[in-house]
Write a structure and sequence with these properties.
The chain is mainly α and 248 residues long. Helices cover 48% and strands 7% of the residues. Keywords: Chromosome partition.
Amino acid sequence: MPYAVTLPEFTGPLDLLLRLIERAELDITTIALASVADQYLAHVRTLEEVEPRELAEFVSMAARLILIKSRALLPRSPTTPAEAGDEDAGQLVAQLELYRRFKQAAEVLRRWQDQGRSTFVRLAPPPLLPAPAPISYRITDLLHALERRRQLQLPLAQPEPIVLAPRLTVAEVAERIRARLERTAWFDFTDLLSNDPTTEEVIVSFWAMLELLKRRAIVVEQTMLFGPILIGRGTAPIVTEPADEDEL
């Protein structure tokens, strides 16, 4: 809802008041600018959130109106040309006209947005780009370029052999289990692993333990969930000969 002022000489929106002053249909000397300012301040106090841009526009316009009215009411100096007040009034009219044009443009853009006209056709023709220069080469030029390219080729580096780390086997873990059970009746599963075991080492060691458990070569105990896994001697011997490595 647009802001409106109520004065003895005028009652209505502030935009209409400015338009009447612009057209010289309302004498600025008959308007109480203090009353306009008081009403606007009372209006601002009722707002939950003040728009700084609108407040700045009102302050700028009110300052210009006060200047014009003060020059119209105060006596002019004999040395002051009479056109000074007219020039200020002309600047004010020009600002009001510019404000009116921008407000009309904003209304048109808002109406287009409500109609879904959010895209606009390009009216200006595309820029004319200079045509690329024709490329012409002789067969001899291409042959010379290929020759230079062949001479710049670097010799291929000698292939480097890829050395893979030794893989841990189930038979090797079974041998570790057999050697430990010869020294002690029970030991922890983590004793089979290194200080910083890899995923492969943990999987192979666990696989070997399950394989020996299936053959009853060892017994396994775990007294609590996620607790330590203890390995002990079973009833069958642990065979780790190379011939049996594939079976393990």
